[in-house]
Specification:
It comes from Archangium gephyra. With 239 residues, the protein is of the alpha+beta class. The chain is built from five helices and eight strands.
C-alpha cells in the first residue's frame, strides 16, 4: 500500500502579487498629489520661480500724479519797467526764485538826477490778480539841488549858495496789485510811502541860505523827509 504525502500549504503567491500592485498604485498616487499644481500653490511664493512676464507684472508702479497739482517752480528771469513818483522812470533786471518772492536791481532817472535802485517783492497769494508788497532802496547821484529845493518848496526856488549837486538815499514801501494775463507778462501798480535821506557835504553854504554869518562853521549835514509813492509798471519774463 502506497502512502501519498501532500505538500505543506504555503502563502498564496497570486494574492501577494496583487497586494504589492495595490501598494505601488497607492504610492504612485501620493507622488502625483505631491507634485500636483495644488501642492505647488501651497509652497512659499518667494521660493517659486515666476516667469519674467509675471515678475514684470508684480513690480509696483508709481502712483499717478494729480493733474490739478501745481508744477514744480523753476527760477524765472526777466526785466522790469516802471514809472512813478518820486522814483521817476526805471529799468531793472528781475530774478524770481520762488513763487512768493521776487527781486530786482537796475537804474532809475527822475527830474533830480540818475540813480541805482533795487528791491524785493512779496506775493503772498498767487491769483489772477494778486496782492503784492514791495520794499525798495535807491541812491541818487549828484541830484540837482535847485530842482530839489523847488520840489520841496512846491514852487520855483533858486539857491543863493554854491551848492548845485547833492546825493540822497531813498527807502520806500508800497502795497499794490499785479495782473498776469499771460505767462510772460505781468502788469503791476501800487501806492505807499517813501523816506529821503539827503546828504549835504558843504553844510556851511547850505546853512548860509538862512543866515548871513561868515564865521559860521558846520559839519556835513543829513536831512530827512518823507513823501507819498505811486507807481505803475510792467514785468516781462524770458522763460
Amino acid at each position: 500500500m502506497r502512502t501519498t504525502v501532500k505538500p505543506r500549504s504555503g502563502p498564496d503567491t497570486p494574492g501577494l502579487v496583487r497586494g504589492y500592485a495595490r501598494c505601488a498604485r497607492a504610492l504612485t498616487c501620493l507622488l502625483m498629489l505631491a507634485v500636483s499644481p495644488g501642492a505647488r500653490a501651497q509652497q512659499d511664493p518667494e521660493d517659486v520661480d515666476l516667469p519674467d512676464s509675471e515678475q514684470e507684472e508684480t513690480v509696483a508702479t508709481p502712483a499717478p500724479t494729480d493733474p490739478d497739482a501745481a508744477p514744480p517752480w523753476k527760477t524765472r528771469f526777466g526785466m522790469r519797467l516802471v514809472a512813478g513818483a518820486p522814483e521817476g522812470i526805471g529799468i531793472a533786471a528781475v530774478l524770481h526764485p520762488r513763487r512768493w518772492a521776487r527781486a530786482h536791481v537796475g537804474a532809475t532817472r527822475n527830474n533830480l538826477g540818475f540813480g541805482a535802485r533795487g528791491g524785493l517783492s512779496l506775493i503772498p497769494l498767487e491769483l489772477l490778480i494778486s496782492p503784492v508788497l514791495e520794499l525798495e532802496y535807491g541812491y541818487y547821484f549828484n541830484a540837482d539841488y535847485e530842482e530839489l529845493l523847488t520840489q520841496l518848496h512846491g514852487q520855483p526856488t533858486t539857491p543863493v549858495t554854491g551848492i548845485r549837486k547833492v546825493g540822497y538815499h531813498q527807502v520806500s514801501g508800497s502795497i499794490g496789485l499785479e495782473f498776469s494775463p499771460v505767462r510772460y507778462v505781468t502788469f503791476f501798480g501800487g501806492v505807499g510811502i517813501s523816506y529821503w535821506f539827503i546828504e549835504v557835504g558843504n553844510a556851511k553854504d547850505f546853512i548860509l541860505e538862512a543866515g548871513n554869518d561868515p564865521e559860521l562853521t558846520a559839519r556835513p549835514l543829513n536831512l530827512g523827509l518823507s513823501s507819498p509813492v505811486a507807481k505803475l509798471g510792467l514785468l516781462i519774463y524770458f522763460n
